[in-house]
Amino acid sequence: MYLVPHGAQQKSNEVTGSVSLWCFGTVGCSNPALSIFRFTMPTNEVYSPTTASNPKLSWFLIPSEHLDQTRFGIKLCEVLLSLVAFVLEELVSICISCTALYFFEFVSCAAFLFTLLLVVLLATPLHTWMSITCWPCIDFVYTASIAFFFIISSIVLAALNSRTPLERSAVVFGFVASVFFIADILLFLKTRGSPFSNTKEQLSNGMAAAQATPPEKEQLNSPTAEAV
């Protein structure tokens, strides 16, 4: 244990990462014969970090309760493929059956926008700001609906197109995007099971808890009745 003598001065050494204590003169020194003595003490024992990072404050929650890393990657592919299919459809200038082209345009645009919105909500704390608790049901129903409409619109556009390279490329990306949406559904069922069964279990547990709690009974023997 080192004691700092009287009249000592403290000096920080940035090169060696230590604190040097110097004693000048003979006042307060244990040995008058020594005019200067020096000892060092590591700074890591003196200066220690007082704050720690809080991982809960992060804006990126992958993997999270509603979205794991694998499904997050699949949804990013869905967003990109839907965007490419929509852009290719928009570049078509001549169409024989424009109804099929417009239907494909609507589905691909909706798939891009709503899938991107869902990814942003589930991958960040934004979904906790809403009064929605059935996010698995929303994710499952939306993904299944988009997969169905993407397959239908791709089949219709494949049958009723002008045989241009842009339309054929849009059809290809539409089918590939549909495959990713279907894979997303299958992976959801494999890892989490049916979201509707979990919702029914929560409702049954809530009803059982409500029935287990006995209702409050009014006090029959009131003070006024005892007085009479």
Automatic annotation (TrEMBL):
Transmembrane segments: 110-128, 140-160, 172-189
Cellular compartment(s): Membrane
Signal peptide annotation: none
Region annotation Disordered: where it falls in the sequence: 207-228
Membrane topology: Multi-pass membrane protein
Presence of keyword Transmembrane helix: yes
Predominant place of localization: membrane
Keywords: Membrane, Transmembrane, Transmembrane helix
Entry GO terms, CC: membrane
Domain named MARVEL: residues: 66-193
Pfam families, per database record: MARVEL
Protein name (database record): CKLF-like MARVEL transmembrane domain-containing protein 6
Originating organism: Takifugu flavidus
